[in-house]
Specification:
The protein has no helices and 15 strands. By secondary structure, it is mainly β. The radius of gyration is 23 Å and the shape is rod-shaped. 22% of the residues are buried.
């Protein structure tokens, strides 16, 4: 989320036409097209965040600026050239890094919260413990995960929560 993404399309010499067909998981389809004989590009129902990376005759790659969850879906590039027709399909999945907080509840138990990540984060604790886990799925497809630490001994003063996620791992420590 928030970064730019570039999807490559097969580049061939003597391109006649290039078409990007985009079918997002949410919302309607969009098409970017280019015809070499008229040197014209066309767009239908595409947001301004989607455009050719350079120029379609030199490089038919698609650039998505400021990627959002709404950009998830199938992206197909079709190239028509004198050598034949070529296709490349991508299934774009957007990763959303969770926001990590570690706090103490009313009973002085550490609680680790990985908020609004996509996919759901995995939470573990440095010390051996019993922990309870709850997940809350949000309408936009993100997931908040809560894990409450329950120490096996009463002399635990500092705890470390580790959040594992495909967008990056983080940890935080706290004394409750």
């Amino acid at each position: 989320v928030g970064n730019s993404s570039v999807l490559a399309c097969p580049f061939k010499s003597n391109i006649t036409m290039v078409t990007w067909k985009i079918s997002p998981n949410v919302g309607g389809p969009c098409t970017l097209g280019y015809r070499a004989d008229t040197n014209k590009t066309d767009r239908t129902n595409c947001s301004d965040s989607m455009n050719w990376k350079f120029t379609p005759d030199c490089n038919p790659a698609l650039e998505i600026r400021q990627v959002r969850i709404a950009h998830e879906g199938n992206y197909t590039c079709e190239v028509v050239a004198t050598e034949g027709n070529f296709h490349k399909t991508y299934n774009l999945t957007v990763l959303v890094p969770p926001r990590l907080t570690l706090y103490c509840d009313d009973h002085s138990n550490p609680v680790c919260k990985a908020a609004a990540g996509k996919p759901a984060a995995q939470i573990s604790w440095v010390l051996e413990s019993n922990s309870t886990r709850k997940e809350e799925v949000h309408d936009n497809g993100t997931v908040t995960v809560l894990s409450k630490f329950a120490a096996r001994s009463s002399n635990v003063t500092n705890t470390t929560c580790i959040v594992a996620h495909p967008a990056g791992n983080r940890s935080e420590s706290k004394a409750c």
